[in-house]
Amino acid sequence: MTEGQEWYVVQTQPNAEFRAQKNLGRQGFAVYMPQHLRTRRHARKTETVARPLFPRYLFVRMDLSRDRWRSVQSTFGVQSLVWVGERPGAISQDLITELRARENAAGYVEVESKPFNKGEKIRILDGIFEDSVGTFQRNADKYRVAVLLQLLGREVMTLVPDESITAA
User: Fold this and answer.
1) 9-31: per-residue pLDDT in tens?
2) Lower CB count within 10 Å: N or C terminus of the chain?
3) Of 3.90.78.10, 2.70.180.20, 1.10.287.180, 2.30.30.30, which CATH number belongs to 121-167?
């Protein structure tokens, strides 16, 4: 990392992480989007796909005094930089180093799967309830978990794929 450069968080448009990464790279920015492998089931087919570790977020390295950082805001796929006060907020190089240390030989971050306990708050990562926060209830079967969500002013139990949840 050259002198003066720091890492900043970029919020992307929904499902546009790869587009934002490509377009920021074309502008000469160093971009880091940690990814993990996830098993996806659809139409009775199971496949393993690469997904962003932090949906809708990636990291860009720049020097605010030298780089044209305002162009990041208008890049296709980008919603905005994450701001702290009146400036984009820098994050620690240690965070990036830690994430990269968890990558396997193929470049994917190894995610430890840990069981949830009843009553823990979880966030749904995809599907019709994407970004909803609910309460873990139980493992429903081999592939799904029961989650309690607040919908239309009442609590509703729903089943979601186990790989689609994370700690809130």
Assistant:
1) 999 999 999 999 999 999 999 99
2) N
3) 2.30.30.30
